[in-house]
Protein backbone atom coordinates (compact mmCIF):
# COMPACT_ATOMS: atom_id res chain seq x y z
CA UNK A 1 0.00 0.00 0.00
CA UNK A 2 1.12 3.56 -0.71
CA UNK A 3 1.06 5.97 2.21
CA UNK A 4 1.44 9.75 2.22
CA UNK A 5 2.22 10.96 5.73
CA UNK A 6 1.37 14.51 6.85
CA UNK A 7 3.35 15.96 9.75
CA UNK A 8 3.91 19.26 11.53
CA UNK A 9 6.64 18.44 14.03
CA UNK A 10 9.26 15.98 15.21
CA UNK A 11 7.77 13.01 13.34
CA UNK A 12 8.33 10.22 15.87
CA UNK A 13 5.10 8.56 14.65
CA UNK A 14 6.39 8.92 11.11
CA UNK A 15 9.68 7.33 12.17
CA UNK A 16 7.85 4.32 13.60
CA UNK A 17 6.02 3.91 10.29
CA UNK A 18 9.19 4.30 8.21
CA UNK A 19 10.98 1.73 10.39
CA UNK A 20 8.10 -0.77 10.11
CA UNK A 21 7.99 -0.39 6.31
CA UNK A 22 11.75 -0.87 6.08
CA UNK A 23 11.85 -3.99 8.27
CA UNK A 24 8.85 -5.43 6.45
CA UNK A 25 6.54 -5.60 9.46
CA UNK A 26 4.21 -3.18 7.66
CA UNK A 27 3.53 -4.08 4.02
CA UNK A 28 3.41 -0.50 2.85
CA UNK A 29 5.67 2.21 1.55
CA UNK A 30 5.76 5.89 2.39
CA UNK A 31 5.45 7.58 -0.99
CA UNK A 32 5.97 11.07 0.46
CA UNK A 33 6.07 13.08 3.67
CA UNK A 34 4.46 16.51 3.61
CA UNK A 35 4.72 19.12 6.37
CA UNK A 36 3.03 22.48 6.78
CA UNK A 37 6.16 23.66 8.59
CA UNK A 38 9.54 23.87 6.82
CA UNK A 39 11.41 23.34 10.06
CA UNK A 40 9.61 20.12 11.01
CA UNK A 41 12.28 17.59 11.96
CA UNK A 42 10.11 14.87 10.43
CA UNK A 43 11.14 16.17 6.99
CA UNK A 44 14.74 15.32 7.87
CA UNK A 45 13.62 11.84 8.96
CA UNK A 46 12.02 11.40 5.51
CA UNK A 47 15.17 12.56 3.72
CA UNK A 48 17.26 10.16 5.81
CA UNK A 49 14.95 7.37 4.67
CA UNK A 50 15.19 8.44 1.02
CA UNK A 51 11.52 9.44 0.96
CA UNK A 52 10.34 12.59 -0.90
CA UNK A 53 9.93 15.32 1.70
CA UNK A 54 7.85 18.41 0.90
CA UNK A 55 7.17 21.52 2.94
CA UNK A 56 3.84 23.13 2.03
CA UNK A 57 3.61 26.09 4.38
CA UNK A 58 0.31 27.91 4.80
CA UNK A 59 0.99 31.55 4.00
CA UNK A 60 -1.34 33.78 5.96
CA UNK A 61 -2.61 35.61 2.88
CA UNK A 62 -3.70 32.32 1.30
CA UNK A 63 -7.34 31.35 1.90
CA UNK A 64 -7.73 28.17 3.98
CA UNK A 65 -9.73 26.41 1.25
CA UNK A 66 -7.24 27.34 -1.45
CA UNK A 67 -4.48 25.96 0.76
CA UNK A 68 -6.35 22.71 1.35
CA UNK A 69 -7.06 22.32 -2.35
CA UNK A 70 -3.40 22.84 -3.27
CA UNK A 71 -2.36 20.46 -0.49
CA UNK A 72 -4.77 17.81 -1.80
CA UNK A 73 -3.35 18.27 -5.30
CA UNK A 74 0.17 17.66 -3.96
CA UNK A 75 -0.93 14.61 -2.01
CA UNK A 76 -2.86 13.16 -4.96
CA UNK A 77 0.28 13.35 -7.12
CA UNK A 78 1.69 10.46 -5.07
CA UNK A 79 -1.39 8.28 -5.67
CA UNK A 80 -1.78 7.26 -2.00
CA UNK A 81 -3.95 4.44 -0.76
CA UNK A 82 -3.97 6.05 2.70
CA UNK A 83 -3.30 9.56 3.95
CA UNK A 84 -1.74 9.22 7.39
CA UNK A 85 -1.89 12.26 9.72
CA UNK A 86 0.96 11.94 12.22
CA UNK A 87 1.34 14.94 14.44
CA UNK A 88 -0.40 17.05 11.77
CA UNK A 89 -1.65 20.12 13.58
CA UNK A 90 -3.89 21.85 11.04
CA UNK A 91 -7.64 21.29 10.80
CA UNK A 92 -8.37 19.89 7.34
CA UNK A 93 -11.48 21.19 5.53
CA UNK A 94 -13.74 19.17 3.25
CA UNK A 95 -11.80 20.75 0.35
CA UNK A 96 -9.09 18.27 1.34
CA UNK A 97 -11.02 15.47 3.05
CA UNK A 98 -13.57 15.25 0.23
CA UNK A 99 -10.78 14.27 -2.17
CA UNK A 100 -9.88 11.14 -0.18
CA UNK A 101 -13.13 9.81 1.30
CA UNK A 102 -12.60 7.02 3.80
CA UNK A 103 -8.83 7.14 3.37
CA UNK A 104 -7.60 9.74 5.86
CA UNK A 105 -6.50 8.42 9.26
CA UNK A 106 -5.25 10.21 12.35
CA UNK A 107 -3.72 9.36 15.70
CA UNK A 108 -4.69 11.18 18.86
CA UNK A 109 -3.07 10.66 22.28
CA UNK A 110 -6.36 10.31 24.16
CA UNK A 111 -9.36 7.96 24.15
CA UNK A 112 -12.36 8.56 21.84
CA UNK A 113 -14.41 11.57 22.87
CA UNK A 114 -11.86 12.80 25.41
CA UNK A 115 -9.46 15.75 25.26
CA UNK A 116 -9.86 16.62 21.54
CA UNK A 117 -7.38 19.17 20.20
CA UNK A 118 -3.94 20.26 21.31
CA UNK A 119 -2.03 19.29 24.46
CA UNK A 120 -4.22 16.23 25.03
CA UNK A 121 -1.50 14.41 26.99
CA UNK A 122 -0.96 17.29 29.38
CA UNK A 123 -4.72 17.82 29.80
CA UNK A 124 -5.31 14.14 30.59
CA UNK A 125 -2.47 14.19 33.11
CA UNK A 126 -3.92 17.29 34.80
CA UNK A 127 -7.37 15.64 34.94
CA UNK A 128 -5.80 12.61 36.65
CA UNK A 129 -4.06 14.86 39.17
CA UNK A 130 -7.45 16.43 39.93
CA UNK A 131 -8.79 12.94 40.57
CA UNK A 132 -11.19 13.11 37.61
CA UNK A 133 -9.87 10.08 35.67
CA UNK A 134 -7.76 7.01 36.49
CA UNK A 135 -6.71 6.13 32.95
CA UNK A 136 -6.26 7.64 29.52
CA UNK A 137 -5.12 6.13 26.22
CA UNK A 138 -4.49 6.54 22.50
CA UNK A 139 -6.75 6.16 19.49
CA UNK A 140 -6.40 5.88 15.73
CA UNK A 141 -9.47 6.99 13.78
CA UNK A 142 -10.76 7.85 10.33
CA UNK A 143 -11.14 11.56 9.58
CA UNK A 144 -14.49 11.80 7.74
CA UNK A 145 -15.10 15.51 8.26
CA UNK A 146 -13.88 18.63 10.04
CA UNK A 147 -14.57 17.28 13.50
CA UNK A 148 -11.49 17.67 15.70
CA UNK A 149 -9.96 14.29 16.62
CA UNK A 150 -13.30 12.60 15.96
CA UNK A 151 -14.43 9.82 13.61
CA UNK A 152 -14.85 6.04 13.37
CA UNK A 153 -12.28 4.45 15.68
CA UNK A 154 -9.89 2.00 14.00
CA UNK A 155 -7.80 1.19 17.05
CA UNK A 156 -7.51 2.25 20.65
CA UNK A 157 -5.68 1.21 23.79
CA UNK A 158 -5.86 2.48 27.36
CA UNK A 159 -3.01 3.58 29.58
CA UNK A 160 -3.32 3.45 33.37
CA UNK A 161 -1.76 6.24 35.38
CA UNK A 162 0.91 5.24 37.89
CA UNK A 163 0.71 6.92 41.33
CA UNK A 164 3.35 9.62 41.68
CA UNK A 165 4.38 9.35 38.05
CA UNK A 166 5.75 12.63 36.64
CA UNK A 167 4.27 14.04 33.41
CA UNK A 168 7.43 13.32 31.38
CA UNK A 169 7.26 9.63 32.24
CA UNK A 170 3.56 9.40 31.38
CA UNK A 171 4.17 11.29 28.12
CA UNK A 172 6.94 8.87 27.15
CA UNK A 173 4.64 5.89 27.71
CA UNK A 174 1.93 7.55 25.60
CA UNK A 175 4.33 8.09 22.70
CA UNK A 176 5.59 4.51 22.90
CA UNK A 177 1.98 3.32 22.70
CA UNK A 178 1.27 5.67 19.79
CA UNK A 179 4.14 4.27 17.77
CA UNK A 180 3.04 0.68 18.37
CA UNK A 181 -0.69 1.33 17.93
CA UNK A 182 -0.30 3.26 14.70
CA UNK A 183 1.83 0.59 13.05
CA UNK A 184 -0.49 -2.20 14.27
CA UNK A 185 -3.60 -0.33 13.06
CA UNK A 186 -2.09 0.52 9.69
CA UNK A 187 -1.06 -3.12 9.30
CA UNK A 188 -4.71 -4.16 9.70
CA UNK A 189 -5.79 -1.47 7.23
CA UNK A 190 -3.32 -2.39 4.49
CA UNK A 191 -4.01 -6.11 4.75
CA UNK A 192 -7.72 -5.29 4.39
C1 LIG B 1 1.91 13.09 19.02
O1 LIG B 1 1.47 12.93 20.37
C2 LIG B 1 0.72 13.05 18.10
O2 LIG B 1 -0.28 12.15 18.48
C3 LIG B 1 0.23 14.45 18.25
O3 LIG B 1 1.42 15.21 18.08
C4 LIG B 1 2.44 14.52 18.81
C5 LIG B 1 3.73 14.61 18.04
O4 LIG B 1 3.84 13.55 17.19
N1 LIG B 1 -0.79 14.79 17.28
P1 LIG B 1 5.17 13.30 16.28
O5 LIG B 1 6.32 13.05 17.23
O6 LIG B 1 5.40 14.57 15.47
O7 LIG B 1 4.82 12.11 15.46
TrEMBL record:
EC number: 2.1.2.2
Example of a GO MF term: phosphoribosylglycinamide formyltransferase activity
UniProt: (6R)-10-formyltetrahydrofolate binding residues: 64, 89-92, 106
UniProt pathway annotation: Purine metabolism; IMP biosynthesis via de novo pathway; N(2)-formyl-N(1)-(5-phospho-D-ribosyl)glycinamide from N(1)-(5-phospho-D-ribosyl)glycinamide (10-formyl THF route): step 1/1
Site residues, Raises pKa of active site His: 149
Domain Formyl transferase N-terminal as annotated: residue spans: 2-186
NCBIfam families registered for this protein in UniProt: PurN
Protein known as: Phosphoribosylglycinamide formyltransferase
Protein species of origin: Longilinea arvoryzae
Amino acid sequence: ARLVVLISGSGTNLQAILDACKEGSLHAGVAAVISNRREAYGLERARQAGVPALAVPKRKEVDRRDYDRALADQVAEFEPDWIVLAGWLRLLSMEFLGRFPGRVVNIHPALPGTFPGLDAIERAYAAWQRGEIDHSGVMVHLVPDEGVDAGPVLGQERIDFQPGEPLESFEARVHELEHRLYVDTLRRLVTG
